[in-house]
Amino acid sequence: NAGVIQTPRHKVTGKGQEATLWCEPISGHSAVFWYRQTIVQGLEFLTYFRNQAPIDDSGMPKERFSAQMPNQSHSTLKIQSTQPQDSAVYLCASSLALGAEQFFGPGTRLTVL
Amino acid sequence: GDQVEQSPSALSLHEGTDSALRCNFTTTMRSVQWFRQNSRGSLISLFYLASGTKENGRLKSAFDSKERRYSTLHIRDAQLEDSGTYFCAAEAGGGSGNKLIFGTGTLLSVKP
């Protein structure tokens, strides 16, 4: 079991560019979560899916951020027109079911110049 | 909104000593997880508790089963390799959903 896989591990973009982050959950896990970590805000929730369906996106910034889960083996987080304040480590987690233990990937460090 | 208050924010221990971290919740929580963030930034799950206590080696965690408003992580016989940042995270469930709400972390430094 490779655990949750996130790619890329590091991404540098210029202001205004688009960034797409990828997450492969643990096989058989039905729930996928996205969080981000910054020095100022700490660890904060963004959005999650159950059986590929979006359940709660209350943590997502209203503009420029979107997340999809086109199949059970991967989810993407897309940030359009990136801004310096989007710089953070974006973490993906999966769990066997909602309410179960969440397992985290290594994160993608996004730097917006 | 629901909050998780973690203390202390930083802790310095000598090898061989014991200590405890604590998280208080502003509302009743359904479950709690404790993590250690390693030097590469990965969040390693230490414990998941829906109630009661769990123990793994020199670590022991408890989740208040009565009011479900606090959890503790006890470190016994601290070793150098225990150094790192520890986070608690709680899930409220119900109308608040299944997202984890994180504490602000405890930076643990174990010294010889």
What can you tell me about this protein's structure?
The complex is a heterodimer of chains A (113) and B (112). In chain A, 0% of the residues lie in helices and 55% in strands. Chain A is mainly beta and 113 residues long. The N and C termini of chain A lie far apart (35 Å). The mean pLDDT of chain A is 96. Chain B is mainly beta. Chain B has one domain (13-111): Immunoglobulins (Immunoglobulin-like), CATH 2.60.40. Chain B contains no helices and 11 strands. Chain B has strands at 4-7, 10-14, 19-25, 31-37, 43-49, 52-56, 59-63, 70-75, 84-91, 100-102, 106-111. Chain B is globular and about 45 Å long. Classes of the chains: A mainly beta (113), B mainly beta (112). Chains A and B meet through strand 4, strand 5, strand 9 and strand 10 of A and strand 4, strand 5, strand 9 and strand 10 of B.
Uncertain regions of chain A: pLDDT < 50 for 5+ in a row? none
Q: What radius of gyration of chain B results from the CA coordinates? A: 14 Å
Termini separation of chain B comes to: 41 Å
Number of domains of chain A: 1
Largest sheet of chain A: 7 strands, mixed
CATH-assigned fold name of chain A = Immunoglobulin-like
What are the secondary-structure elements of chain B, in order, as H or E? EEEEEEEEEEE
